[in-house]
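Issue 218. Parser rejects a valid record. Input:
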Amino acid sequence: MNKEIYETLWETGWEDARHYGPIARHSRRIINEMIKDLNIASVLDVGCGECSLLNTIFQNHCPSSISGIDISNKALKICQNLFPNGSFYKLDITKDKLEENFDLIISADVIEHLDNDQAAIKNMSAMLNPSGRLIISTLLGEMREVERQVGHLRNYSKKDLLKKINNAGLQIEHVTTWGWPFFSPFYRNLLNLIGNKGTMGKFGLIRKMICNILYYIFYFNSSSKGDYIFIRAKRI
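Output the parser choked on:
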């Protein structure tokens, strides 16, 4: 992962994009749907960012233990302010892991940025409780130039991604692909065309309204077809 690119994203105002953006909101919705049957006492977000995903899980599942990992000082500070009693760590998941184990580990839009994604998935697997679950989400298919600009090193094929998760000692329980056609190809191609313009910085009323309109349009995306993949797995 290019740490300079990632830190710059937070320093230049990625917080509102992650909070109000239609893709981030649908990602949170889909992940919460995938874990609604679980009894979650402890949760770890690998690549916790501004903590909007952890906050949604907290509101829906009320875990007693909230933890997050990130490499951005700015993001970790946001999380600690939101969850003063939470535990947040600056850690490179490709090289290290925590000594604790968790009922749920989530990693949304992270592994595509990592040099050694296989090592990262293995480290996440090692931190699961015996009955714990891992949720990974990322992008499939063609990688756009705008995705390279925000630090993507790869986009996956479904087959290769599932193989990497299996190689980490995990059993796939459920796979959801989402986003066709309004997210991908239409929205992703538009962002690529405009160079991601308008997605950074503080969002005023107009941008929030546009995000809200797009969010509801994206409900018309297929729930079984698309380039945004969500995988739920457990330890074998």
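Fixed in the parser; the record now loads. The radius of gyration is 17 Å.
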